[in-house]
Design a protein that fits this description.
By secondary structure, the protein is an alpha+beta fold. It is built from 10 helices and 20 strands. It folds into 2 domains: 218 residues, P-loop containing nucleotide triphosphate hydrolases (Rossmann fold, 3-Layer(aba) Sandwich); 131 residues, Coagulation Factor XIII, Chain A, domain 1, CATH 2.70.50.60. It is globular and about 80 Å long. It binds adenosine-5'-triphosphate. Keywords: ATP-binding, Nucleotide-binding, Transport.
């Protein structure tokens, strides 16, 4: 892991904002800088190293400089200042179609693209079947590329770049996704490449991909590197930042930069500084500290943008919130940064504007992509409210144990009742709330859900064979 594969030193990229094609010609053709031309800093003084077998996620809002940085590392763009050294064969999947000739068929394009990536004919022939297999488009491989859908071209491009055993692989996640099955296959391939020593730079907007695949994450914003550290920490800070309005975002950004100027250098005190930073977003209660006791907190800026308040049919859901639940079951502070493993309650008031019968309440938790993870309802016989009168208010609550990890989650709430003999929603709010989950620093569970895994192993005496049907014979 010690061998440096990518060394980026003081890289800046300045674009000139040409006002006419003539200005561009003057500058590019004759190297004369047009008078009064505006310049734009797409990257400012970026430095970092990536080692053999390391996978680094590059995150940041649209226009933050991610592609510019990766194009410079892939040597398809030159920096205005600074240097990049890449040690080993590099393959980049940054733009769909680059590396392909639309007139060639799939098979010819494999040779064309792989030879551009530095393989000779014999090496490509050796890998040809694996590439075709991986792409999953064998039936179309002898048809011209121009007849492919973009998804098919993407499959072929990912297959070529990932099957040539690059020492350095640069991937824009947007180009490594097709349908879910292929997406999974791409992630598995990236994991395998990483295990075999490939260095991977990975542009992504997905917290899950970054935390699952990457050893480190770099957060770029307006061309500056704001953070470089463990993916969990960088993603939490980045997600907080993404939910702030512009004024608070500017303050938070400043806070990130000012809090520890050495944060971006590779100094000794980086870790301690990051711990401080992680839980002290602008506007957030500064109650939390990582380590033995992490605490839930409330960030008023974490408000879902996707909220949908549906039409009311005689009821109105108000004041949706998540509260802490004490050991004696009483409700505590309102929170939206939760701690893994603790109990919380989704609470809301339902104000009835019309009489209602047989009323039930429900709450659901979804991922950013809309996958329903679970929920609770009072729909069963005996749990429902038999009758409510117009003007009455009811406080509903759904207590749950937070078995989720890391990402942002969204809560939808609803209330249904009988109208004209049929059950129908009286009121619903989709994405009424959002929350994130903190995990202890030493918690080593993976993925989205805390299954409370308890892992162990037993060293077997020589010659003794494992009996797979025997319970507890080997927990691993
Ligand atoms: N040729 C160019 N001339 C002027 N400005 C440019 C040029 N190419 C990129 N930029 C600007 O540089 C900034 C960084 O662009 P870049 O494409 O690297 O961002 P990004 O983080 O990859 O964005 P996205 O997530 O949208 O792909 C943007 O503000 C963009 O408008």
């Amino acid at each position: 892991m010690s061998e440096v594969r990518i060394a980026v030193e003081g890289v800046s990229k300045q674009y000139f904002l040409y006002r006419s094609p003539g200005e561009r010609l003057l500058h590019i053709g004759l190297n004369i800088v047009p008078r009064g031309i505006e310049r734009f800093n797409a990257l400012s003084d970026i430095s970092f190293n990536v080692r053999r077998g390391e996978c680094v996620g590059i995150i940041g809002r649209n226009g933050s400089g991610k592609s510019t940085l990766l194009y410079i590392i892939a040597n398809t763009l030159s920096p205005s200042r600074g240097t990049v050294r890449v040690n080993g064969r590099i393959a980049a999947l940054l733009e769909l179609g680059s590396g392909f000739n639309p007139e060639f068929n799939g098979r010819e394009n494999i040779f064309f693209y792989a030879s551009m990536l530095g393989l000779n004919r014999a090496e490509i022939s050796e890998r040809l079947e694996e590439i075709i297999d991986f792409s999953g488009i064998r039936d179309f491989i002898d048809r011209p590329l121009k007849t492919y859908s973009s998804g098919m071209a993407m499959r072929l491009a990912f297959a070529v770049t990932s099957c040539i055993d690059p020492e350095v692989l640069i991937v824009d996640e947007a180009l490594s996704v097709g349908d879910e099955a292929f997406q999974r296959k791409c992630m598995m391939r990236l994991t395998r490449l990483k295990e075999n020593g490939t260095t991977i730079l990975f542009v992504s907007h997905s917290a899950r991909s970054v935390t699952e695949l990457c050893d480190r994450a770099i957060w770029l914003d307006r061309g500056e590197m704001l953070m470089d550290g463990p993916p969990d920490e960088v993603m939490v800070a980045y997600q907080r930042f993404s939910h702030l309005d512009s004024e608070r975002a500017a303050a938070y950004r400043q806070q990130v930069k000012e809090r520890d100027p050495e944060f971006l250098s590779q100094g000794e005190n980086r870790k301690a500084n990051k711990e401080k930073l992680l839980l002290t977003a602008a506007g957030q209660d500064e109650a939390a500290e990582l380590g033995s006791g992490i605490t839930a907190s409330f960030d008023p800026n974490m408000v879902p943008e996707s909220i949908v308040i549906h039409e009311s049919h005689g009821a109105l859901i108000e004041q949706p919130r998540i509260c802490e639940v004490a050991a004696d079951g009483s409700l505590g502070a309102v929170v939206n940064t939760l701690v893994r493993g603790r109990d919380y309650a989704i609470c809301y008031i339902v104000r009835f504007t019309e009489d209602a019968q047989d009323v039930a309440f429900s709450a659901n938790i979804q991922t950013v992509n809309g996958t329903m993870l679970g929920g609770g309802s009072l729909l069963k016989e005996g749990q429902r409210l038999v009758a409510v009168r117009a003007g009455e208010e009811v406080a509903a609550q759904h207590v749950f144990s937070c078995r989720l990890l890391r990402e942002s989650f969204f809560v939808s709430v609803g209330c249904s009742g009988l109208r004209h003999g049929e059950r129908m929603p009286l009121h619903r709010i989709t994405d009424a709330l959002m929350f994130t989950v903190l995990t202890e620093r030493d918690y080593n569970g993976n993925g989205l859900v805390d299954f409370a895994f308890r892992s162990g192993y037993t060293i077997l005496p020589a010659g003794e064979h494992l009996n797979p049907s025997a319970p507890n014979s080997a927990e691993k």
